[in-house]
Amino acid sequence: MTESVRETDRPVPPPPAPGAERHPALDLANSAVTLPGGQHVDLLDTPAAAQDWLVRRGLAPADADLRETCATRLRALRERIRALLAARAEDRPAPADALEAVNEALTRAPAASLLHWSPGRGLYRAAAHPTTQIVEHALAALAADAADLLTGPDADRLTACGSAPCNRYLLRHGRRHWCSTRCGDRARAARAYARRTGRGEEEQAARGPAECT
Protein backbone atom coordinates (compact mmCIF):
# COMPACT_ATOMS: atom_id res chain seq x y z
CA MET A 1 0.00 0.00 0.00
CA THR A 2 2.80 2.41 0.88
CA GLU A 3 4.51 1.82 -2.47
CA SER A 4 1.31 2.37 -4.48
CA VAL A 5 0.57 5.60 -2.61
CA ARG A 6 4.11 6.81 -3.23
CA GLU A 7 3.84 6.05 -6.95
CA THR A 8 0.44 7.78 -7.15
CA ASP A 9 1.82 10.90 -5.48
CA ARG A 10 4.85 11.06 -7.78
CA PRO A 11 4.76 14.23 -9.94
CA VAL A 12 3.96 13.50 -13.57
CA PRO A 13 7.00 14.06 -15.85
CA PRO A 14 6.58 15.69 -19.26
CA PRO A 15 6.21 13.53 -22.38
CA PRO A 16 9.38 12.19 -24.03
CA ALA A 17 11.62 14.89 -25.46
CA PRO A 18 12.03 15.20 -29.24
CA GLY A 19 14.44 12.49 -30.38
CA ALA A 20 13.80 10.14 -27.46
CA GLU A 21 11.61 7.92 -29.62
CA ARG A 22 14.63 7.29 -31.88
CA HIS A 23 17.33 7.16 -29.22
CA PRO A 24 16.70 5.23 -26.00
CA ALA A 25 19.99 6.62 -24.68
CA LEU A 26 18.51 10.12 -24.88
CA ASP A 27 15.42 8.84 -23.08
CA LEU A 28 17.68 7.32 -20.41
CA ALA A 29 19.52 10.61 -19.94
CA ASN A 30 16.16 12.33 -19.43
CA SER A 31 14.86 9.79 -16.91
CA ALA A 32 15.85 12.12 -14.05
CA VAL A 33 13.75 15.25 -14.50
CA THR A 34 13.72 18.61 -12.73
CA LEU A 35 10.20 20.04 -12.85
CA PRO A 36 8.98 23.62 -12.30
CA GLY A 37 9.27 24.53 -8.65
CA GLY A 38 12.39 22.42 -8.24
CA GLN A 39 10.60 19.06 -7.97
CA HIS A 40 12.81 16.16 -8.98
CA VAL A 41 11.48 12.95 -10.51
CA ASP A 42 13.72 9.91 -10.98
CA LEU A 43 12.09 7.27 -13.15
CA LEU A 44 14.76 4.75 -12.08
CA ASP A 45 14.71 5.38 -8.34
CA THR A 46 13.73 1.83 -7.38
CA PRO A 47 14.47 -1.60 -8.88
CA ALA A 48 10.79 -1.93 -9.84
CA ALA A 49 10.81 1.45 -11.57
CA ALA A 50 14.06 0.66 -13.39
CA GLN A 51 12.69 -2.69 -14.53
CA ASP A 52 9.49 -1.07 -15.76
CA TRP A 53 11.55 1.50 -17.71
CA LEU A 54 13.57 -1.27 -19.40
CA VAL A 55 10.51 -3.43 -20.12
CA ARG A 56 8.64 -0.53 -21.74
CA ARG A 57 11.55 -0.05 -24.13
CA GLY A 58 11.98 -3.71 -24.99
CA LEU A 59 15.29 -3.98 -23.14
CA ALA A 60 14.23 -6.53 -20.51
CA PRO A 61 11.51 -9.17 -20.06
CA ALA A 62 8.66 -8.45 -17.67
CA ASP A 63 9.86 -11.15 -15.26
CA ALA A 64 13.46 -9.90 -15.06
CA ASP A 65 13.24 -9.33 -11.27
CA LEU A 66 15.86 -6.57 -11.17
CA ARG A 67 17.72 -5.95 -7.92
CA GLU A 68 19.05 -2.69 -6.50
CA THR A 69 22.54 -3.50 -7.76
CA CYS A 70 21.26 -3.59 -11.33
CA ALA A 71 19.20 -0.41 -10.90
CA THR A 72 22.28 1.34 -9.50
CA ARG A 73 24.30 0.36 -12.58
CA LEU A 74 21.58 1.70 -14.87
CA ARG A 75 21.51 5.02 -13.00
CA ALA A 76 25.30 5.21 -13.11
CA LEU A 77 25.32 4.74 -16.89
CA ARG A 78 22.65 7.43 -17.15
CA GLU A 79 24.92 9.96 -15.44
CA ARG A 80 27.84 9.09 -17.70
CA ILE A 81 25.69 9.44 -20.82
CA ARG A 82 24.36 12.77 -19.54
CA ALA A 83 27.95 13.97 -19.10
CA LEU A 84 28.73 13.05 -22.71
CA LEU A 85 25.57 14.72 -24.03
CA ALA A 86 26.37 17.88 -22.09
CA ALA A 87 29.91 17.96 -23.43
CA ARG A 88 28.70 17.48 -27.02
CA ALA A 89 25.94 20.09 -26.71
CA GLU A 90 28.34 22.63 -25.18
CA ASP A 91 31.22 21.79 -27.53
CA ARG A 92 33.50 20.72 -24.68
CA PRO A 93 35.94 17.77 -24.50
CA ALA A 94 34.28 14.49 -23.54
CA PRO A 95 34.97 13.52 -19.89
CA ALA A 96 37.38 10.60 -19.74
CA ASP A 97 35.45 8.77 -17.00
CA ALA A 98 32.23 8.97 -19.02
CA LEU A 99 33.96 7.61 -22.12
CA GLU A 100 35.43 4.76 -20.09
CA ALA A 101 32.06 3.85 -18.57
CA VAL A 102 30.26 3.78 -21.93
CA ASN A 103 33.03 1.75 -23.55
CA GLU A 104 32.97 -0.71 -20.66
CA ALA A 105 29.23 -1.16 -21.07
CA LEU A 106 29.74 -1.76 -24.79
CA THR A 107 32.27 -4.54 -24.23
CA ARG A 108 30.83 -6.35 -21.20
CA ALA A 109 27.66 -7.75 -22.75
CA PRO A 110 27.99 -11.55 -22.93
CA ALA A 111 27.90 -12.86 -26.46
CA ALA A 112 26.81 -16.36 -25.45
CA SER A 113 25.95 -18.56 -22.49
CA LEU A 114 28.97 -19.75 -20.56
CA LEU A 115 30.15 -23.35 -20.20
CA HIS A 116 29.60 -24.88 -16.75
CA TRP A 117 30.06 -28.27 -15.09
CA SER A 118 28.38 -29.78 -12.06
CA PRO A 119 28.22 -33.31 -10.53
CA GLY A 120 25.35 -35.33 -11.94
CA ARG A 121 24.77 -32.88 -14.76
CA GLY A 122 28.15 -32.68 -16.37
CA LEU A 123 28.87 -29.96 -18.87
CA TYR A 124 26.12 -27.50 -19.71
CA ARG A 125 25.74 -23.95 -20.93
CA ALA A 126 23.92 -21.22 -19.01
CA ALA A 127 24.26 -17.68 -17.82
CA ALA A 128 26.05 -17.47 -14.50
CA HIS A 129 23.47 -14.94 -13.31
CA PRO A 130 20.51 -14.58 -15.70
CA THR A 131 19.33 -11.22 -14.32
CA THR A 132 22.81 -9.75 -14.55
CA GLN A 133 23.06 -10.99 -18.14
CA ILE A 134 19.81 -9.20 -18.99
CA VAL A 135 21.16 -6.00 -17.49
CA GLU A 136 24.49 -6.38 -19.30
CA HIS A 137 22.66 -6.60 -22.63
CA ALA A 138 20.45 -3.61 -21.76
CA LEU A 139 23.42 -1.48 -20.74
CA ALA A 140 25.30 -2.48 -23.90
CA ALA A 141 22.32 -1.55 -26.08
CA LEU A 142 21.97 1.84 -24.38
CA ALA A 143 25.71 2.49 -24.61
CA ALA A 144 25.72 1.59 -28.31
CA ASP A 145 22.81 3.93 -28.96
CA ALA A 146 24.59 6.71 -27.06
CA ALA A 147 27.67 6.18 -29.23
CA ASP A 148 25.54 6.30 -32.38
CA LEU A 149 23.79 9.47 -31.21
CA LEU A 150 27.02 11.25 -30.34
CA THR A 151 28.84 10.37 -33.55
CA GLY A 152 25.98 10.21 -36.07
CA PRO A 153 24.04 12.80 -38.07
CA ASP A 154 21.80 13.65 -35.09
CA ALA A 155 24.73 14.88 -32.99
CA ASP A 156 24.59 18.41 -34.41
CA ARG A 157 20.94 18.68 -33.39
CA LEU A 158 21.59 17.77 -29.77
CA THR A 159 20.85 20.57 -27.32
CA ALA A 160 19.74 21.20 -23.76
CA CYS A 161 16.21 22.39 -23.08
CA GLY A 162 16.23 26.20 -22.96
CA SER A 163 13.62 26.52 -20.24
CA ALA A 164 15.07 26.55 -16.72
CA PRO A 165 15.00 24.63 -14.45
CA CYS A 166 14.43 21.79 -16.94
CA ASN A 167 17.51 19.57 -17.26
CA ARG A 168 16.49 17.46 -20.25
CA TYR A 169 18.17 17.07 -23.64
CA LEU A 170 16.48 16.93 -27.04
CA LEU A 171 17.15 16.83 -30.75
CA ARG A 172 16.50 20.34 -32.03
CA HIS A 173 13.99 20.77 -34.85
CA GLY A 174 14.42 24.11 -36.58
CA ARG A 175 14.90 26.80 -33.92
CA ARG A 176 13.04 24.94 -31.21
CA HIS A 177 15.10 24.58 -28.03
CA TRP A 178 12.37 23.26 -25.72
CA CYS A 179 11.76 19.65 -24.82
CA SER A 180 7.98 20.00 -24.38
CA THR A 181 5.07 22.35 -24.91
CA ARG A 182 5.04 23.02 -21.19
CA CYS A 183 8.67 24.16 -21.24
CA GLY A 184 8.06 26.29 -24.34
CA ASP A 185 5.07 28.02 -22.73
CA ARG A 186 7.08 28.67 -19.56
CA ALA A 187 10.02 30.13 -21.52
CA ARG A 188 7.74 32.42 -23.53
CA ALA A 189 5.97 33.56 -20.37
CA ALA A 190 9.33 34.30 -18.72
CA ARG A 191 10.45 36.37 -21.70
CA ALA A 192 7.17 38.30 -21.75
CA TYR A 193 7.48 39.00 -18.04
CA ALA A 194 11.08 40.16 -18.46
CA ARG A 195 10.03 42.54 -21.25
CA ARG A 196 7.20 43.98 -19.13
CA THR A 197 9.46 44.36 -16.13
CA GLY A 198 12.18 45.96 -18.21
CA ARG A 199 9.80 48.57 -19.67
CA GLY A 200 8.46 49.36 -16.21
CA GLU A 201 11.96 49.98 -14.89
CA GLU A 202 12.82 52.18 -17.88
CA GLU A 203 9.67 54.26 -17.40
CA GLN A 204 10.41 54.67 -13.71
CA ALA A 205 13.99 55.72 -14.46
CA ALA A 206 12.71 58.36 -16.95
CA ARG A 207 10.33 59.79 -14.35
CA GLY A 208 13.02 59.93 -11.69
CA PRO A 209 12.83 58.67 -8.10
CA ALA A 210 9.40 58.48 -6.55
CA GLU A 211 8.54 61.22 -4.02
CA CYS A 212 7.60 60.36 -0.45
CA THR A 213 4.07 61.34 0.56
Explain this structure.
- The protein has 7 helices and 6 strands; from the N terminus they run H-H-E-E-H-H-H-E-E-H-E-E-H.
- The chain has 213 residues and is mainly alpha-helical.
- It has a single domain, classed as Jann2411-like fold, CATH 1.10.3300.
- Strand 3 and strand 4 form a beta hairpin.
- Helix 4 packs across helix 5, helix 4 runs parallel beside helix 6 and helix 5 packs across helix 6.
- The longest helix has 27 residues, at 181-207.
- The N and C termini lie far apart (61 Å).
The CATH topology comes to Jann2411-like fold
User: Would you list the SSEs in sequence order as H and E?
Assistant: HHEEHHHEEHEEH
Helix content: 40-55%
Structural class: mainly alpha
Mean pLDDT: 84
Indicate the multimeric state.
single chain
Strand tally:
6
Describe the secondary structure blueprint for this structure:
Blueprint: H1 2-9, H2 24-29, E1 32-34, E2 40-42, H3 47-56, H4 68-89, H5 96-108, E3 114-118, E4 122-126, H6 130-151, E5 158-160, E6 169-171, H7 181-207
Antiparallel strand pairs: 1-2, 3-4, 5-6
Helix pairs in contact: 4-5, 4-6, 5-6
